[in-house]
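Re: the request from the purification team.
They wanted to know what the chain is likely to look like in 3D before they choose a buffer screen. I agreed to run a prediction and write the result into the notebook, where they can find it.
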Amino acid sequence: MEILIGLGGNLGEPEAAFARALEGLANQGRVAAVSRLWRTRPVGPSQPDFLNAAALIAWPAGPKSLLRRCRELEIVAGRDRAHEERWGPRILDLDLLIAASAVCRGPDLDLPHPRLHQRRFALEPAAEVAPDWLHPLFGLTIETLTEKARQNEPDAILDVMGFDY
């Protein structure tokens, strides 16, 4: 199953944390594509700018298995979800964004991500690796959702940089 994940972070060295996380995912799956790095304005409390990226992961098991692996990699990076402020600064954030046409709503996993269509910081990198994927609830491509987000959040993106993990 191919699943698009978002990577984010604004503490420490996010680029290095992203690379380690992708290596950790590649141990059990395959990293099919990775976007560039996008420096974005934070959402939430006052904090440093974020780096964001997206990766298309070919995962042998289902999305819940990938979510568990992502949470493990966040912990290895030093993230402590239990003691952090909601939408606050973090070392590493790995979010499952969308999985082809799969829809999952539950206490542990919402797929597609319930706010993906509103978040330019997630859509821009996602559009680099899966522009033609259809959002299964809205019937719109990632690229179309990105174009709408550009109109709603014109100042969200600060810079775009290469990323060779």
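For the purification team: The two ends are 22 Å apart (CA to CA).
Please add any questions underneath this entry.
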